[in-house]
Design a protein that fits this description.
This protein is α+β, with helices and mostly antiparallel strands. It is built from nine helices and ten strands. Strands 5-2-3-6-9 form a five-stranded mixed β-sheet. It has a three-stranded antiparallel β-sheet with strand order 1-8-7. It has a two-stranded antiparallel sheet with strand order 4-10. The protein is globular.
Length: 254
């Protein structure tokens, strides 16, 4: 048997095992037990790091900012912070999930910043922060899904500080924000963006409804730096950060 074929078979076997484990973790009772274990781990890790929380000279500034945001939102003892290897993003998604202990690849998420290219400044002398809250939106979505920008319009139109009343759909055209603009807005670099801890307030955070249906109900995403990730219970994040939960994504077709 060729080496490539053997390795492919091994990967297929591992993926099959992973799917079976994920299926077990989706069971209501097992999911609840997993979340109890996760909460114990998070509380223990937070207690151990208490003296340096938010002011640890050994971690990047962005991570310290995320930790401070978690504390302010009352999430520090329910979230977990992970450092990942520099080669992390060269790995397949399933391998990244395994490395951080995620129940499945579906639990792996990213924070995406989109800009409304049809946004225009009005004459109401809004502050720069208020205008950024109108122009941009933050979306937390699974790596296994793609964002529907049309559904995103429905999610934010008439439901956010920037658009408290519905306006014409013609005023929206969401596109991925320029990386430089996203970095200036969030304070985080590529692959390190978190949905909290931004220097700018008021930008709406939309969590894909597919995430809200995960079992166990916890997700992994950026934590302020490319080499750090955090895991946080979905409901806790949504409640504490005032996120909008909406059906804005669909599975990527293989």
């Amino acid at each position: 048997m060729a080496k490539g074929t053997a390795e492919s078979d091994q990967i297929s076997s591992l993926l099959a095992i992973g799917r079976r484990i994920s299926g077990v973790l989706e069971l209501e009772q097992i999911s609840a037990l997993y979340m109890e274990w996760f909460a114990e781990q998070a509380a223990s890790e937070a207690a151990a790091a208490e003296e340096e929380d938010g002011n640890n000279p050994e971690v990047p500034a962005g991570v310290n900012r995320v930790v401070l945001a978690l504390t302010a939102l009352g999430l520090r003892t329910t979230a977990r912070i992970y450092r990942v290897p520099r080669t992390y993003y060269s790995w397949p998604l399933y391998e990244r999930a395994l490395s951080v202990g995620a129940p499945s690849a579906e639990h792996m998420c990213k924070t995406v910043v989109l800009a409304n290219t049809r946004w225009r400044s009005n004459s109401n002398n809004n502050s720069a922060e208020a205008e950024q809250a109108e122009k941009y939106v933050c979306v937390v979505v699974q790596y296994t899904h793609t964002i529907s920008t049309q559904a995103l319009v429905d999610a934010v139109n008439g439901r956010t500080g920037g658009y408290p009343q519905p306006v014409s759909r013609k005023r929206f055209n969401f596109r991925l924000a320029d990386e430089r603009a996203a970095c200036a807005l969030t304070g985080f670099g590529h692959n390190g963006v978190a949905p909290i801890g931004w220097p700018v307030r008021g930008v709406p955070v939309v969590v894909s409804a597919a995430i809200a249906g995960l079992r166990p109900p916890v997700i992994w995403l950026g934590a302020g730096d490319v080499d750090y990730k955090m895991a946080v219970p979905v409901a806790a994040l949504v409640a504490a950060a005032g996120c909008i939960v909406a059906d804005v994504s669909s599975p990527i077709q293989a």
